[in-house]
Design a protein that fits this description.
Blueprint lengths: L1 H20 L40 E10 L4 E2 L14 E17 L4 E15 L9 H8 L2 E13 L4 E13 L13 E13 L2 E10 L6 E11 L5 E7 L2 E9 L2 E15 L14 E17 L4 E19 L17 E2 L2 E11 L2
Antiparallel strand pairs: 1-3, 1-16, 2-15, 3-4, 4-5, 5-6, 6-7, 7-8, 8-9, 9-10, 10-11, 11-12, 12-13, 13-14, 14-16
Protein name: Secreted protein
Keywords: Signal
């Protein structure tokens, strides 16, 4: 059988060589055949090229994420809401909570991309000593309900041409010590936004400048922003940043594993509700200005093409955990005293999440 197979192979190659060696027959044109000159054809519509919102090698775009955040024990010394008052310190054994994130493209065209998002995060505080009615009002509020943030976002990516683009983002969040059974009134919604003009010179880099209305510092502020996605020519490392909010150095190990090192700022203003004078606060419009800097290392791993696992660990540095009245613009250079100044210790933290990513 093997000999017969080799015979057929030799015959096949012999015939192929003989056929290819023969002169091709001359094909005569039929009389009256019309010859079309394609050089005279004119394009009726103009095809315009647009740059995309992604670069090669970047982190996968997360459409849906669910995670859990845990902070180790740290000291807490609440400030008094009255000049002559005092408050007893009460250490926090841990802070933990669920995190959800949705960022889905409802419009995805070459000329325009619109993502709508939903975000939820909670911080539940476990104190060394359970709070009583004699404790500081803020200690009672944190011990009873913790802090929650529920928000909606809209992000638009508008390419101008193959090299230039615009990014617009709008956010609305409800932040406070509310529960779902006792939800916070909509009038306490806080709004944020950003606008960026950018350039994409190639498929490995895009960058831009812009302005933002933000609460990341705890209070309302207006800040310049710098945006960049970059992957090195070797495709082994890159940078992903939106300064001053976050910075990531990315190490691409392979298609399924990435390592990150950098920081992220988390912050917002949280209403402390005092309905029916439950905490005996001097005012009913007190808000907690919470802001923290997270220095971290992270590992991104593909469980499958659609699902990625993330674990990050690092150090949480407290920037602000003070109380003010209402919502107003407070620039970073403003040294006006807060209504109550609290001391929150720094600590280690860890965060786990699973994400469904864009293909």
């Amino acid at each position: 059988m093997t000999k017969l197979f080799f015979v057929f192979v030799l015959i096949f190659f012999g015939l192929s060589t003989t056929i290819s060696a023969q002169d091709e027959p001359i094909i005569e044109e039929e009389e009256g055949e019309e010859v079309i000159d394609f050089s005279n054809l004119v394009q009726t519509t103009e095809n315009k090229a647009y740059c995309s919102s992604k670069i090669v090698g970047q982190l996968p775009v997360k459409l849906f994420s669910i995670g859990y955040d845990y902070q180790a024990g740290h000291p807490f010394e609440p400030g008094s809401f009255s000049p002559s008052g005092s408050a007893a310190p009460n250490d926090i054994e841990n802070t933990r909570g669920l995190r959800l994130g949705i960022n889905y493209p409802v419009i995805s065209k070459n000329s325009f991309v619109l993502n709508l998002g939903f975000n939820y995060m909670e911080s539940n505080y476990v104190f060394s000593n359970a709070a009583t009615g004699m404790d500081n009002p803020l200690t009672q509020a944190l011990d009873n309900n913790g802090l929650r943030s529920t928000g909606f976002t809209a992000t638009a990516f508008k390419p101008i041409n193959s090299r230039k683009f615009l990014i617009f983002q709008f956010g609305a969040t409800l932040n406070g010590d509310y529960t779902f059974s006792d939800f916070q009134p909509i009038r306490y919604t806080r709004y944020s936004g950003a606008a960026i003009y950018g350039i994409k010179p190639n498929d490995r880099k895009m960058w831009g400048f812009g302005v933002s209305r933000t609460y990341l510092g705890g209070s309302l502020n207006y800040l310049p922003v710098y945006y960049m996605l970059y992957t090195a020519p070797s495709k082994k490392w890159g940078l992903e940043l939106l300064l001053p909010a976050r910075f990531n150095y990315r190490r691409n190990i392979n298609a399924k594993n990435m390592l990150l090192a950098g920081w992220e700022i988390e912050g917002n203003t949280y209403r402390i509700q005092n309905d029916e004078n439950q905490y005996n606060l001097p005012f009913n419009d007190i808000e907690l200005r919470r802001s923290e800097l997270r220095l971290r290392l992270a590992w991104e791993h593909a469980l499958s093409p659609q699902f990625w696992f993330n674990v990050q660990a690092g150090y949480r540095y407290n920037w602000s955990f003070d109380a003010d009245r209402g919502d107003f613009f407070r620039p970073f250079v403003d040294d006006t005293p807060f209504l109550a100044e609290n001391i929150l210790g720094n600590t280690a933290y860890v965060n786990f999440s699973i994400s469904w990513v864009s293909p």
